[in-house]
Amino acid sequence: MDIPSGIKSEVLHIKNMVCNCCKIFLKEKFESLGLHVRDISLGKVHIIQPEKPISHETINYMLKYYGFELVHSREDKIVEEIKVAVIELVHHLNNVDSIVRKSDYLVEKLGLSYQYLSKVFSEHEQQTLEKYIILQKIERIKHLIDSEEFTLSEIAYMMDYSSVQYLCNQFKSVTGFTVSQYKESDRSEKTGIEFL
Fold first, then answer.
1. 39 to each of 11, 30, 52, 85, 179, how far by Cα in Å?
2. Pairing mode, strands 36-41 and 9-15
3. Helices (H), strands (E): how many in the chain?
4. pLDDT by residue (tens digit) across 88-116?
5. What is the pTM of this model?
6. What is the three-class DSSP state of 191?
7. What are the structural domains, with CATH classification, of the chain?
8. Which whole-number Å values give the CA distances from 9 to 31, 52, 55, in the listed order?
């Protein structure tokens, strides 16, 4: 689709946009503001403004109301891209092999050195990138346990733990519960992946 001259097309970077449901929801919300959504992906939306443009302030107000917000600085955009890449890998691709540990996936996906990505992430998120990846893996493990489709051995393998014991130790270190205690608990207290 060619964009007529005088019509503004722009890509907005959005914080906390972490799943396909977010994409569907936000597409609807952008269109309700009168914006045409040309393309939407996790963390980004390409919009075409109407003849009377909608201000970024109005867009951000709508986004904040629903728990999202516009991202402006280069480093904040990088942090959001890191989060999206980790979430895709851990929660959506079902392939958390040594790519995460070696960080090749992030480097390849973002085109920046791991040292730089880690530094920027830590400065903006008050936690290390490694800790963030571990928290995402633990939330995925909770989901896999709750599904009752896999044994702990299968989950350990899927999530790239060298052993069930290592998974269990890290699970307890992060959650404060053993896996058995978690299985026996209410299990309703999960943290949304956008809040990790």
1. 9, 12, 20, 18, 41
2. unpaired
3. 10, 4
4. 888 877 655 544 456 888 898 899 999 99
5. 0.80
6. coil
7. 9-72 (3.30.70.100), 75-190 (1.10.10.60)
8. 14, 13, 13
